[in-house]
Specification:
alpha+beta, Cytochrome p450, 15 helices, globular
Length: 445
């Protein structure tokens, strides 16, 4: 294999400092009270961007308005389509991935349909029950048991010694990718890509060079795996039943939708869309469990009962109080009157960036009953963790299985709590959880 010059990627570039850190904290993780004020007084707010104060964007916080935006993908399109292609080096229609596609034109709608079809063929619902969940359960039990072998109180740094290993193992055991040489470096690459794709579009210019370097490193890892599997398939060697094996079989059969560019685009989308996203979701869930005794009690009881469906409801109900992010960004591709016929209606001008705050929508008393009460039995429609409309998360069931099984093993231990001092407080890399240590006593809670 030819020697590949590695690009220069600076993990330190992911850190937020000074005014950016303050601004990101205010926008990235606002309090429920801040959302309530916005819904009451500025439900469709036109705001200046930082640091490009001359660029205006719109923050939408009411549940009905958020759903209106996310349901109308022909007007409110994802702003990262071309960026996603650049990151994956996709130069053909077949190389698109649903994460960066919409239906704003006939061509894009056709491409979205092709990509969705491939994803449904490759990522089967039965896989979650038969492969992803059992594997995550076994690995979580092993990792928690290793920590429990210590003299009490047992300590576990959950990000790198529980959550990340499970999410990366899914990339290996289910997606079919090789073990990364450096798992922390892989996390940093995916965090860089996720932060750029789903963060404020007006901040892309600052982070693009470093993010493109991370993308090139990720592509190198994926391209080596793809080339190896295609070679095995061409040589008639027996293949397994991972996602990459299925891709290689489709490629060998000459299916037009599965050239190497398309294989790379799909794998990039699934890795970037799952690893840092699930890490953030799980980190936020753990924060809520550690801070809200009623949430911790309910989750522990569900884990002890062996009812995975109930445990999942407890965990994702907890995440309503500290959502994955404020919500998805969209670009309005034509003038549009939002919330038409209401006192808050406002015209959104063409090319305006819009943040549809699903985090606020999940706490809106106009659409969610008793939104500030922890209630695992609430209607699933009250939660929008996995999006709404066209870009409802394709990896939703994979993420659910991984997170539920990760927490199940941990919640079966006694006295789960934060470690004293700084280790027990989440350290962030940008806005992504990077370190958090808990303590527990081995045995049942």
């Amino acid at each position: 294999m030819a020697h590949r010059l590695e690009p220069t990627f600076d993990p330190g570039g992911l850190e937020l400092r000074g005014v950016r850190r303050i601004f990101a904290a205010l926008l990235g993780r606002p309090s429920p009270g801040a959302y309530a004020l916005a819904r009451r007084w500025l439900p469709i707010a036109i705001l200046p961007a930082y640091p490009r104060w001359w660029q205006l964007w719109v923050l939408v916080t009411r549940r009905d308005d958020v759903q209106e935006i996310l349901s109308n993908d022909r007007v409110f399109e994802v702003p990262w389509t071309s960026l996603m292609r650049e990151l994956t080096h996709g130069n053909t229609h077949e190389a698109g991935f649903i994460l960066g596609l919409d239906r704003s034109s006939q061509a894009s709608a056709r491409e979205y349909g092709h990509s969705l079809r491939d994803v449904m063929v490759l990522f089967r619902l039965d896989d979650v029950r038969e492969t992803v969940a059992p594997r995550a359960a076994r690995l979580a039990a092993e990792l928690v048991a290793q920590a429990a072998a210590q003299a009490p109180p047992c300590r576990l740094e959950v990000i790198h010694h529980l959550l990340a290993p499970i999410f990366i193992d899914t990339c290996q055991s289910y997606y079919g990718l090789p073990a990364p040489k450096d798992s922390r470096a892989l996390l940093q690459w995916t965090i860089a890509l996720s932060g750029m794709l789903f963060g404020p579009p007006f901040d892309w210019e600052r982070v693009k060079s470093n993010t493109m370097a991370a993308g090139e490193l990720l592509r190198g890892w994926l391209d080596d795996a793809i080339a190896d599997r295609i070679q095995q398939a061409a040589a008639g060697k027996p293949l397994g039943d991972t996602v990459l094996d299925r891709m290689a079989i489709m490629h060998r059969a000459g299916q037009a939708s599965m050239p190497p560019d398309a294989m790379r685009a799909i794998l990039t989308g699934m890795v970037v869309g799952s690893v840092p996203t699930n890490l953030t979701a799980a980190g936020h869930i753990l924060e809520v469990l550690l801070d809200r005794p009623e949430a911790m009690r309910a989750a522990r009881a569900a884990a002890a009962s062996g009812d995975d469906a109930l445990l999942s409801r407890c965990l994702f109900e907890a995440m309503r109080f500290e959502a994955l992010n404020p919500g998805p960004w969209r670009r309005c591709n034509s003038d549009y009157l939002l919330a038409r016929g209401t006192a808050r209606q406002r015209r959104i001008r063409k090319n305006t960036l819009v943040l549809a705050s699903t985090a606020s929508a999940m706490l809106d008393p106009e659409g969610v009953g008793e939104p500030l009460r922890f209630n695992p039995a609430r209607d699933a429609a009250d939660a929008q963790h996995f999006g709404h409309g066209l870009h409802w998360c394709a990896g939703r069931f994979i993420a659910d299985a991984q997170i539920t099984q990760s927490f199940k093993a941990l919640l079966l231990q006694g006295g789960l709590r934060r470690a004293p001092g700084k280790p027990g407080q989440t350290r962030l890399l940008g806005l992504f959880p990077w370190e958090l240590t808990v303590e527990f006593e081995r045995g049942t809670p």
